[in-house]
Amino acid sequence: MELRGDVERGDNDYPLCYLLILMQVESALLFETPVEICERVFRSIRPRTPAPQFRVTFKKFANATSTIRIHGDVIELKITDLLADAPSPILEALAVILLSKLFRKPIPAHYNEQYRRYLNRHEVRQEITEIRQARGRKLIDPPAGKTYDLGMARPTLGWSRQASRTILGHCDAAHNTIVLSRILDQPHVPRFVAEYVMYHEMLHLVHPVETRGSKRAIHPPVFRAAEKLFPRIREAKAVIRQLCSRSSQRSLLF
Predict the structure, then answer these.
(1) pLDDT of 84-94, one tens digit each?
(2) Which of the residues 74, 77, 97, 185 has the least number of beta carbons within 10 Å of its own beta carbon?
(3) Which CATH number fits domain 139-253: 3.40.50.720, 3.30.2010.10, 3.40.630.40, 3.40.50.300?
(4) pTM recorded for the entire structure
């Protein structure tokens, strides 16, 4: 098999993207099981490799998480039970994504787009939120820090258990929780810096993530405009740059 750009060709010289589209038609018509879908996707990706044994189980994860691992000649897929009743083409798209990652192959854009569009459907996003609320949990310390007290306001506020320099704040709408990095809870860190990070995270409750097709805008323009209203935003960002200068990664606010 030779690789020509982003298009892989098999023995019949048909582009891989064309063969994958045909696979979706087969999946819809043949009512395949998840294992059969994985076996067929594997044959399309590695046609000259003997097919391994597949184990596919649906797990009650706290999010839309799915994993793949290989143990000897067995490939195990653990798929979120959110997709237990998903259409066959969606399971096939996930199989293509996971197997492509496993074997370090480029993920066909069509499958990535199709899978993301499905997860971004309003009813699916709502179900994901409900699952996170029912199954997930947040492990945080109380809001009373060594230097600053975040108070007992709502949503639930707390300090992270690790003093992260890369993720300074996180807003979890599913648990109505805002977590600040403990790195901000130090005497030499001005209070307005923690207030800025808190302000940023609270804006997520006012301006939630916008979804457009397969894309998600975490910080849409309306969010950025509101963020600039923070009185000392330039000073806060300058302190954050100094605070996180020891890290090779830039600081993140979610």
Answers:
(1) 999 999 999 99
(2) 74
(3) 3.30.2010.10
(4) 0.52
